[in-house]
Amino acid sequence: MPDDLVTGEAVVLELRPATFASRALALLIDFAVQFALLSVTFFALGLALAVLDPALGVTLVLLTVVALLVGYPVAFETLTRGRSLGKMALGLRVVRDDGGPEQFRQALVRGLVGFGEFFLTSGAAALISSLASANGKRIGDHLAGTLVIRERVPQSGAPVAALPPALAGWAAGLELSALPDALALEARAFLGRARQLHPAARRTLGVRLADEVRARITPGPPPGIDPESYLSAVLAERRRRELARMQLPGHARPGAYAHPTPYAQPGAYAQPQPQPGPYGQPLPSPPAPTAPPARPTPPPDAPFAPPG
Asked: Comparing C-alpha atoms, which of 184, 183, 200, 210 is closest to residue 303?
């Protein structure tokens, strides 16, 4: 189940803790790599012990064991910001409890405690701790303040509504203050599953929602627009304004959309000023350009066409 966390910048993060099975499989991959390296290293040390001092040989063996069983996970998770070879293969990552990337301090605590959890207790301590934790944390995660999450997860939820460029000018003038959140969420849910509905039910529900939204906002919909495109444009403009109020980087602020020609504002066509002629006399003013005829707008109480 996703775990919603709020960072210090008031940004909500949806973290998906890794399952016990995926963590166990990633751990088996890491163990296989570690023991393969241990086998190769011990073989090389066995050949070298014939000419080395026995005390030096024991020291090298201990250093090798510590380097591969503790240094391997610490180095990998520090350099890759929370991933080992096994976690890379399974799409997992270690992050801090606040959602930030894992650092050397957290990786060192996890590595040192993990040596005791996996090798001194044969994995029993890690198993009990993971099963007792709602997020699958082992003892090392509790002490380091970390969490193993899934990076590769299927996208879910309704897609973000899109605003067609041709409707940008109309949408910029919408009055959305009377649109309730519940109706907006219902419309967004409808757009997310519209393709799964029977065509007749899809048309009926789309017309009903579009009429309810139309009754609460002004101006009315442009002529000829279908209910789903109307709902998508309204929701996209609503989201754009919310992001602009939050002043999130990369999002347009209110009024950023230019008004296209069909929805030109009064005074958009300025009258040219007479220019002086070669002898000081003003030249005759050219005829003022005229705005294209406005498209007819349906009356506010005109509902969308009922399903055929």
From this structure: 210
Q: Percentage of residues in the chain with pLDDT exceeding 90?
A: 18
Give helix 227-246 / helix 181-193 axis angle, nearest 10°. 120
The stretches of 196-298 forming alpha helices (DSSP H) are 199-214, 227-246
- Token pair 């959305």 is found at 176
- Radius of gyration for the chain, computed over Cα atoms and rounded to the nearest angstrom: 32
Q: In terms of Cα–Cα distance, which of 27, 22, 25 is closest to 150?
A: 22
Beta bridge partners of 148: 94
**Local structure of residue 162 (DSSP, 8 states):** -
pTM equals 0.48
Place of tokens 């509790």: 142
Retrieve residue 19's tokens.
Answer: 């399952």
Backbone angles phi, psi at 31, to 5 degrees: -65, -40
Give the end-to-end CA distance of the chain in Å, rounded to a whole number.
42
pLDDT tens-digit readout, 225-262: 888 888 888 888 888 887 777 654 444 444 444 333 33
Pairing status of strand 12-15 against strand 3-6: antiparallel
Nearest one of 231, 235, 201, 197 to 304, comparing CA atoms:
231
Q: What confidence tens digit (pLDDT) does each residue in 278-294 have?
A: 434 444 554 555 555 55
- Spatial distance between the Cα atoms of 144 and 54, rounded to a whole number of angstroms: 38
Return the pLDDT at 110. 93
Secondary structure element (H or E) that encloses residue 32, with its range? helix 20-48
Q: How far is the C-alpha of 260 from the C-alpha of 240, rounded, in Å?
A: 18
Q: Could you write out the DSSP letters of every residue in 66-85?
A: HIIIIIHHHHHHHHTTS--H
